[in-house]
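REQUEST
  id: r-88c1
  op: predict_structure
  target: Ribulose-phosphate 3-epimerase
  payload:
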Amino acid sequence: MKPLIAPSILASDFANLQKEVEMLNQSEADYIHVDIMDGVFVPNISFGIPVTEAIHKHAKKPMDVHLMIVRPENYLEAFRKAGAEILTVHLEACPHLHRTLQAIKQMGAKAGVAINPHTSVTLLAEIIEEVDLVCVMSVNPGFGGQKFIENTYSKVSRLKDLIISKNSKTLIEVDGGVNLTNAPLLFQAGADVLVAGSFVFNSADPIQIISQLKESV
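RESPONSE
  id: r-88c1
  status: 200
  body:
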């Protein structure tokens, strides 16, 4: 199985957003990764519901919406209506994670959980069977273009072991600093979905880079 590729629209040219989305439509990308930042949970602000709706208007690929915000449960319905097919919340932001995952699934979306670099995968043991996707942050969330954290390989491997031990079908997504050097190693460790932002959009040929990531295994 080839990895699923989810280019992060956060790294795109916002002045030409429609053009960037149409480029992703023509590429081998599997998802469009949409990073929502509130300036509270992470030290940056990206965009919100109206821009998500605008992306969805032109997107022909499923929207993978990553909520890096406090109280995400208050915004699930709004982002679902804005076009999210995958809704990922942070474990660190959800005191009632099981309830939040149930709410996402009741809306007909896939439920994801993201974990920061310092968060242990063991904290997912009691919930992993309820999760469609775990987003392992391989940089500290908040900004694009950061250096990949090398400990991510072993973290993904431990998470894969947990998923197998629970007989779960959860996908592992890795977000941050992904490139052609670490992509095959991440896949070998157990990753299923690779998020790439700056590496895709800052390249001379984003479509070719997406194809190369897809074939990197």
